[in-house]
Amino acid sequence: MGEKIATLQPTEWSIQDLAKAAGTTSRTLRHYGQVGLLEPSRIGSNGYRYYNQDSLVRLQRILLLRDLGLGLGAIGEVLRGKQDTAAALRTHLSLLEQEQDRIRRQIQSVHTTLRKTEGGEQLMAQEVFDGFDHTQYKDEVIERWGKEAYESGDKWWNSMSDSEKKGFQQRQVDIASAFATAHQAGIAADTDQVQAITQRLYDWVGIGWQGKAVEAEAFAGLGQMYVDDPRFTATFDVHGEGTAAFIRDAMRVFADRM
C-alpha cells in the first residue's frame, strides 16, 4: 500500500481512485481497457494501473457517449475518429431524441404504477415496463457473464411472441409485488414465506437461463446488482422503497441455502 502511494504522481490516478471519481467500478475500467477504449497510461512495477489527465478526458467522453445510449463498439468508432464531428453530432442528437421519448414513457409508466399501487389495482407488465429496454444492460451482462450469455439471452427473448413476453414480464411484476408486500408487512427475508417468493424468483430467472442451472453465486450476484445499479433499484422500488434491498437480502439467504 505504501509503494502505491509513494509512486503515485500528482497528475495521475490509480484505477480505484479514477473509478471512484467517475462513479463507476474498477472492473468496468478494466473492461474498457480490454476492448481498447481506455488503456492505462502506465502500469506500475507492482501491477497497478495508472491513468493520466488525457485518460480522464477520454473517460469523460466515453461516459457521455454511454449516457447517450451508444454501445462500446460505436463509442470506439467515435473515439477513433471514424465519424466526423457533424456526423457524430447528428448521431448524438438522434439518440438524445430517442432517449427523451423513452424517458417520457418511463415517467408515464411510473405515474401509472404509483396510481395503481396506491389504489390497490392490479399492475400490468406492459404498463410497468413501457419505456424500458433490456438491451441497455448489454455491456453489464457481457462484463459479468460473457458475450455468449448475452447473445443467448437476447436470441431467446427475441424468439418469443409478444404475448409470451408480456406473460414473462407480468410474472416478474407479480413476484416483485409479493416481495414488496412482505417487506412492508415487516416479514424477515429469511422466513419460509419470503423464501417461497424467492423460489418463484429463482424459477423465473431460470427461464431466462434456458434450462441451465442458476448457480448460487450467480443468483446472489444478480440480487446485488439489483441494489448496485440504480436502474434496477428504481424498477423494484417503484413497488415500495427498500424493495430492491429486501429482494437482494432474500436472494442471498436463498443462495446460501442452495
Overall description:
It is globular and about 55 Å long. Helices cover 70% and strands 3% of the residues. It contains 14 helices and three strands. Strands 1-3-2 form a three-stranded antiparallel beta sheet. A hairpin with a 5-residue loop joins β2 and β3. The protein is mainly alpha-helical. Keywords: Activator, DNA-binding, Transcription, Transcription regulation. Pfam families: MerR_1 (PF13411), TipAS (PF07739). This is MerR family transcriptional regulator. InterPro entries: DNA-bd_dom_put_sf, MerR-type_HTH_dom, MerR_fam, TipA-like_antibiotic-bd, TipAS_dom.
Secondary structure: elements and pairs:
Elements: H1 2-7, E1 12-14, H2 15-22, H3 26-34, E2 42-43, E3 49-52, H4 53-67, H5 72-79, H6 85-119, H7 125-128, H8 138-145, H9 147-159, H10 162-184, H11 192-208, H12 216-228, H13 230-237, H14 243-256
Antiparallel strand pairs: 1-3, 2-3
Q: Helix share of residues? A: over 70%
Q: Number of helical segments?
A: 14
What's the total number of strands? 3
The shape is globular
**Beta-strand content estimate:** under 5%
Average pLDDT level: 75
- Terminal CA distance: 37 Å
Characterize the biggest β-sheet: 3 strands, antiparallel
Helix/strand order: HEHHEEHHHHHHHHHHH
Query: Structural class, from helix and strand content?
Result: mainly alpha
Give the neighbour order of strands across the main sheet: 1-3-2
* Poorly predicted regions: 1-9, 123-135
C-alpha-based Rg, rounded: 21 Å
